[in-house]
Amino acid sequence: MLLVMALLAAQAQESAKGAQPLKPLTSPGNWVTDDDYPPSAVRQGHDGTVAFQLQIDSTGLPAGCSVTQSSGHEELDQQVCSLLVQRARFSPARDASGKAIAAPYNGRFTWRMARGETFFQPGTSSMEFELSADDILLNCRLGDKRLETAGQMCGPMTIGAPTPGFAAVGGGKHRRITTELFFEIGSHKPMLYDAPGQVEISKRTALFETDAEGKRVKCEATMETPGIAAPPPAVAEMCTAVPATFAGQHLAAGGKDGPLSGSVVVATSWKELP
After folding, report:
1. How confident is the model over 9-21, as pLDDT tens digits?
2. How many other β-carbons are positioned within 10 Å of the β-carbon of residue 7?
3. Under DSSP, is residue 222 helix (H, G, I), strand (E, B) or coil?
């Protein structure tokens, strides 16, 4: 199983009074997706975190990309920069007079091959960011190790720091952004994503079935993106979050390995706070 996680952090641009920093036009978390994991890295089990700097020109387009800290694997470093140059788009930075100028944009991206069985065990988890109306990170909470295993963590985020990468998600409001991870056997359980008052951003779902021996025989992946203006990325890799077999886990009735049905869901939404 492999999971490619979203961009973990974006550095705000320091500017003089009256100047305006770069602002992403689309969610940075969609610039690199699960389907972009290099096949050669998958075969060799390579993963790691890439720190990068994009050089953004006065039109808001990437003019170049450099790796400021390597993942340790050239193919992962190159893939991040190649995709960011193709997909990252910004409202350009402006100087104190309002003139559009070139500026750098810094961030990190984690490629991670899930190891062991922690992520495979049915259950739920969530990650929450609390942001001020001017996009200052006020708090970050990780529900348990499940999301950390999948590459999501609060460590790269600095409490009290500007986070312009989140401006496209409820910018201008004090809000909480929540990402939920569900892995369920049987019927799907209610999610915060669907609760009243939550503003839906995106939800990826993989519905799977197994045979009597616990072997996965069917998986269908879907994605809904009510809060993302850009075209949704491919979601076929969601099915790689489902084990190929549940043999020996005895999760079905009567102590059998199957048949089973269930779902893996990753959903992100936000809610305005007082």
Report:
1. 444 444 445 578 8
2. 22
3. strand
Convert the pLDDT of each residue in 207-219 to its tens digit: 999 998 888 899 9
Helix (H, G, I), strand (E, B) or coil at 59: coil
For residue 38, tell me if it sits in a domain: yes
Residue 235, pLDDT > 90, answer no
Q: Which domain holds residue 34?
A: 1-10+25-113
> Within a domain: residue 66?
yes
Model confidence, pTM: 0.55
Contacts with 253 (C-beta within 8 Å, 6 or more apart), sequence order? none
75 within some domain: yes
> Helix, strand or coil for residue 89?
coil
Residue in the block written with tokens 């199983």: 1
Split into its structural domains, the chain has a count of 1
Predicted local confidence at residue 266, as pLDDT: 87
DSSP string covering 93-154: EE-TTS-EE-EEEEEEEEEEE--SSTTTSSEEEEEEEEE-TT-BEEEEEE-SHHHHHTT--S
What's the confidence (pLDDT) of residue 17? Answer: 53
Q: Is the pLDDT of residue 237 over 60?
A: yes
Residue 117 pLDDT exceeds 50? no
In degrees to the nearest 10, what's the CA dihedral of 266, 110, 171, 62? -130
* CATH code of the domain containing 60: 3.30.1150
Q: Is residue 103 part of a domain?
A: yes
CA–CA distance, 98 with 219 (Å, rounded to integer): 51
